[in-house]
Specification:
The structure is a single chain. This protein has 98 residues and is mainly alpha-helical. It has 5 helices and no strands. The longest helix is centred in the middle third of the chain and has 26 residues.
Length: 98
């Protein structure tokens, strides 16, 4: 069973939804106006934020496994494990957002 990760919402539409809103207003005004006119902007941004967060989470776990961040390492050397996982999270964000 896949459990949903609870994370704080930053901004009105979440961190990634807010970034997309800023981007659309500046570089995709037609899409922005279209979504506003149809009343779909809020749901679009919330869905996008959730999708991006899930991709980053999944990729972080995958990268962590590839770099040896196991549960055993977490028990034996939590600082090393935390460093590896932080690095993996940054890599995952770069991959997904670019």
């Amino acid at each position: 069973m896949e459990e949903k990760v609870e994370r704080p919402i930053i901004g009105k539409y979440g961190l990634y939804g807010d970034k997309k809103l800023e981007y659309m207003k500046r570089w995709q005004p037609q899409l922005y106006v279209h979504l506003v006119a149809r009343g779909q902007l809020e749901q679009y941004l919330l869905d996008l934020d959730q999708e991006v967060a899930e991709k980053i989470s999944n990729l972080t776990e995958e990268l962590g496994k590839q770099q040896g961040a196991t549960f055993q390492l977490r028990k034996e050397n939590p600082l090393l494990w935390a460093g590896i996982m932080t690095n993996c999270k940054h890599q995952a964000r770069e991959i997904v957002l670019n």
